[in-house]
From TrEMBL:
The chain crosses the membrane at residues 28-46, 52-70, 100-118, 150-172. Keywords: CBS domain, Membrane, Transmembrane, Transmembrane helix. Gene3D superfamilies: CBS-domain (3.10.580.10). SMART domains: CBS. It holds the Pfam family CBS. Residues 244-300, 318-375 form the CBS domain. This is CBS domain-containing membrane protein. CDD domains: CBS_pair_HPP_assoc. The keyword Membrane applies.
Length: 381
């Protein structure tokens, strides 16, 4: 068999879904629940004939809302608006021209154009329009009131999709939330200022010139995750243990404010892990944590007339709980924590004990050395 023919046959092999079996059952049970509730309510209010006639397109919609919940076609606006368009087009053509194959084709054409115009493309909407254009007498007799069972079904399925998906750990609908920099400014997060930007993504989608069934925010997340995995592969075996400072300077909960200031200044540090008597990490303090209490102590107060007030200890001002990492954590996974989360120091734990700390300086130095090594290898090659 020629290589060209082999490649042609390869096109018929389905691509991997990248969906675990647990997700198959989760989405299947959710779709069944939504369809059963909608069908029962529609049968009770409008009769079994109307309910059965509307079940097929509704079942297709449940596949999208539960199994393809991240898709652009699966979001609430395309779902609800497409059903309204389908009901208007389908039943309108049925009453104007009567049932027939040509009428069904006209319904399909018009509803696709209308959905594209209103940005509510949802394939089951086209099926619903054709179904209503070919409606049996009992459904056609409802006239414009047919929108009532259509919307009832859609609203029930949407309500179940929102509740069930969220209860089972799936965010639906997908709402794009702007990512903010740690300092509350208008800048992008530091880790996203180099590489693919939102503007690049918009330009690529415009150049593609065709519909992509994934929301823009989900597509951006996929690209960023792909970049992160690529960087992780290129960084090889660089882990937290490789870059951490091992001679950890720490304080105790009983350390006073003055002692902490002196310790930070003498070692040129910005953070101090706080360990209890058993060596367990119980908190962390930074320069910013010390500023407020230090200024408060410096202010004049009546107690200063009769002697020194009680010293402030780190137990009163330390931050807890502390974000930590394990020693085998990949360096690329530390970047979002130290850049986007605004952290300056990550304690490294082994068996619950602090064995080192990774600071922004440690990570920058390690990445710099890695880039220089890569450049030397490239020149040698």
């Amino acid at each position: 068999m020629s290589s060209g023919l082999s490649r042609w046959f390869d096109r018929f092999i389905p691509a991997a879904l990248h969906i675990p079996p647990k997700e198959w059952f989760r989405s299947a049970f959710g779709a069944l629940l939504a369809l059963a509730l909608a069908g029962s309510a529609c049968t009770w209010l409008f009769g079994s004939a109307a309910a059965l006639h509307l079940m097929a397109p509704l079942a297709a919609s449940t596949v999208l809302l539960f199994a393809v919940h991240s898709g652009a076609l699966s979001q609430p606006w395309p779902f609800l608006a497409s059903y309204v368009c389908a009901a208007a087009v389908g039943i309108g053509l049925h009453h104007l021209l009567g049932p027939g194959l040509l009428v069904a084709g006209a319904a399909l054409l018009l509803v696709i154009l209308l959905m594209c115009l209103l940005r509510c493309l949802h394939p089951p909407g086209a099926a619903l329009a054709v179904s209503l254009a070919l409606a049996d007498p009992s459904l056609a007799a409802m006239g414009v009131r047919v929108i009532e069972p259509v919307l009832l079904n859609a609203l029930i399925v949407l309500a179940v999709a929102v509740g069930y998906n969220r209860l089972t750990g799936v965010l639906y609908p997908k709402i794009g939330m702007p990512r903010k920099a740690a300092h509350g400014t208008a800048d992008q997060p530091a880790s996203e200022r180099v590489g693919v930007s939102g503007k690049d993504l918009d330009q690529a989608l415009d150049e593609l010139g065709e519909f992509v069934d994934v929301t823009r925010d989900e597509l951006e997340r996929i690209i960023l995750a792909t970049e992160r995995h690529a960087v992780q592969r290129s960084l090889g075996g660089i882990t937290a243990a490789s870059v951490m400072s091992r001679d950890v300077q720490f304080a105790t909960p009983e350390t006073t404010l003055a002692q902490a200031w002196k310790q930070l200044a003498s070692h040129h540090l910005k953070n101090l892990p706080v360990l209890d008597d058993g060596g367990r990490l119980v908190g962390i303090v930074s320069l910013s944590d010390l500023v407020g209490p230090a200024m408060a102590q410096a202010r004049f107060n009546w107690r200063s007339l009769f002697g020194r007030g009680k010293d402030v200890t780190l137990a009163q001002i330390m931050s807890e709980p502390v974000i930590t990492v394990s020693s085998d954590r990949q360096a690329v996974e530390l970047i979002p924590l130290l850049c986007d989360r605004g952290l300056h120091c990550l304690p490294v734990l082994e068996a619950g004990k602090v064995v080192g700390v990774v600071t922004q300086t440690d990570l920058i130095a390690a990445l710099s050395q890695h880039l220089l090594a890569q450049e030397r290898l490239a020149r040698a090659a």
